[in-house]
């Protein structure tokens, strides 16, 4: 029984350290996670998928890269499209983008003003979960609830050991 308890304790501590390590890693490497909200990049990136992006220097952008950019009409919102035109000059870098499922490129040209731009480096196919008949709010509530229960379990185990 003591061995099982120790294995549970070690796995709980290792899980906590792994989550903390992942958080530090993402902060250090300027990695972000975003959920895809539209179908404009299907079939490669589907609505509901989670994309992992990293800030890259605008000089490193190439044709075919998928970038996360502010909408020209409303800079408070972002969109994710593939670079289909790239013009570098002394004055700056100007790109045109296109959604993979859109028949035509976007009407606007974007001048990249910041030295770094978020580039999609990986896609986590999760659309089957987030686009399922179960609403997203239930999934999020379940994840938050499970995390809270895990915290309570760890707290209870710690307090019960101190008493014995």
Query: Structural class from helices and strands?
Result: alpha+beta
> Beta-sheet strand percentage?
25-35%
CATH class term of the largest domain: Mainly Beta
Main sheet summary? 4 strands, antiparallel
Number of helices: 3
Written as H for each helix and E for each strand, in order along the chain, the element string is HEEEEEEEHH
Helix content estimate: 25-40%
Globally, the shape reads elongated
User: Spatial order of the strands in the main sheet?
Assistant: 3-4-5-6
Oligomer: single chain
**Second rung of CATH, namely the architecture of the largest domain:** Ribbon
Computed Rg: 22 Å
Provide the CATH superfamily of the largest domain.
Answer: Umud Fragment, subunit A
Mean pLDDT: 83
CATH topology of the largest domain: Umud Fragment, subunit A
The rounded distance between the terminal residues' Cα atoms is: 15 Å
Low-pLDDT segments: none
Q: What's the number of structural domains? A: 2
Beta strand count: 7
């Amino acid at each position: 029984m003591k061995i099982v308890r120790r294995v549970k304790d070690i796995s709980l501590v290792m899980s906590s350290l792994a989550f903390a390590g992942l958080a530090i890693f993402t902060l250090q490497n300027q990695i972000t996670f975003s959920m895809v909200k539209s179908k404009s990049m299907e079939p490669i990136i589907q609505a509901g998928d989670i994309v992992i992006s990293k800030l890259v220097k605008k000089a490193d952008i190439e044709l075919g890269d998928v970038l996360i950019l502010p909408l020209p009409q409303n800079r408070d919102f972002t969109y994710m499209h593939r670079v289909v035109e790239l013009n570098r000059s002394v004055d700056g870098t100007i790109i045109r983008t296109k959604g993979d499922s859109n028949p035509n490129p976007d009407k606007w040209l974007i001048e990249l003003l910041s030295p770094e731009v978020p580039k999609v480096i990986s896609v986590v196919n999760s659309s089957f979960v987030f686009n399922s008949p179960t609403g997203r709010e239930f999934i999020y509530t379940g994840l938050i609830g499970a995390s809270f229960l895990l915290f309570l379990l760890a707290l209870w185990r710690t307090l019960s050991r101190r008493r014995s």
